[in-house]
Amino acid sequence: MIRVLAIDDEPLALRQLISYVQRVPFLELAAQCQSAIDAREFLRHDSVDVIFCDINMPDLDGMSFVKSLVAPPLVVFTTAYSEYAVEGFRVEAVDYLLKPFGLDEFRRAAERVQRRLQDNASAQSPSAEASSPDVLFVRADHRTVSVDVSTIRYVQGLSEYVRLHLTNATKPVTTLMAIKTLEERLPRQSFMRIHKSYIVSLKHITEIAKSRITLDDGTTLPIGDAYRGAFETYLHNKML
């Protein structure tokens, strides 16, 4: 069962949200709150798998609430204001439901949450290496293109977009996606996040300095402080 925290300052909207949760068999309502402040207090002593959260709320809005969490669960935003969509993507929300939404739309969002949790579990499984994708299909330039994972030299995060730099193309592939989403899909034995804005293919690293790496095409990329420890551990394990 997927544990849900439902947050909405409007009682009618909160009741509808709860009724939808109760009608999806794999969801379990862990708690309901009418403010982000109450929700934050709940999360201090309990945990959930996903938050369904309104954005436009008094005292503390839903977007600021999610950004304030140190280790947020998955998030689906529910709001009547479409202008928040891009900002929701930037905080890596799984989905964005525009009010008024029906049960079918809610169910589809719940299924996306279920798939994301399954993908995360698979990535942490010992068998993840065997199930890593050889090809990714991404939307770019109003079409869907196939990207051979083995041709990715590095990935650059650009706000709500990512840019895939490939060994077999002079022009990178740019697609609307959070870098964390792509990080979860790439095989961990071959790729590593070294900076908030960069994921690299480990086989293309040719030189390492204290605060940067150099790739086989001459590109230099910074190593972020938050990612330095994991990268140095990898390097230590490979050192002769």
Summarize the structure in words.
This protein is of the alpha/beta class and 240 residues long. The protein has eight helices and 15 strands. The chain has helices spanning 11-22, 36-43, 62-68, 85-90, 103-123, 128-131, 179-185, 225-238; strands spanning 2-7, 27-33, 50-54, 74-79, 95-98, 135-140, 143-148, 152-158, 161-166, 173-176, 191-195, 198-201, 205-208, 212-215, 220-222. The strands form four sheets. A five-stranded parallel beta sheet has the order 2-1-3-4-5, sandwiched between helices. Strands 10-9-8-12-11 form a five-stranded antiparallel beta sheet. β6 (135-140) and β7 form a beta hairpin. The longest helix has 21 residues, at 103-123. The termini are far apart. The model has no long low-confidence stretch (mean pLDDT 88).
Described by the principal axes of the CA atoms, the overall outline is: elongated
- Main sheet record: 5 strands, parallel
Number of helices: 8
Q: What fraction of residues sit in β-strands?
A: 25-35%
Q: Uncertain regions: pLDDT < 50 for 5+ in a row?
A: none
Distance between the termini: 46 Å
Overall pLDDT, averaged? 88
What is the oligomer described by this structure? Answer: single chain
Total beta strands: 15
Structural class: alpha/beta
**Rg measurement, Å:** 20 Å
Q: Which range best describes the helical content: under 10%, 10-25%, 25-40%, 40-55%, 55-70% or over 70%?
A: 25-40%
Series of secondary-structure elements, N-terminal to C-terminal: EHEHEHEHEHHEEEEEHEEEEEH
How do the strands of the widest beta sheet line up side by side?
A: 2-1-3-4-5
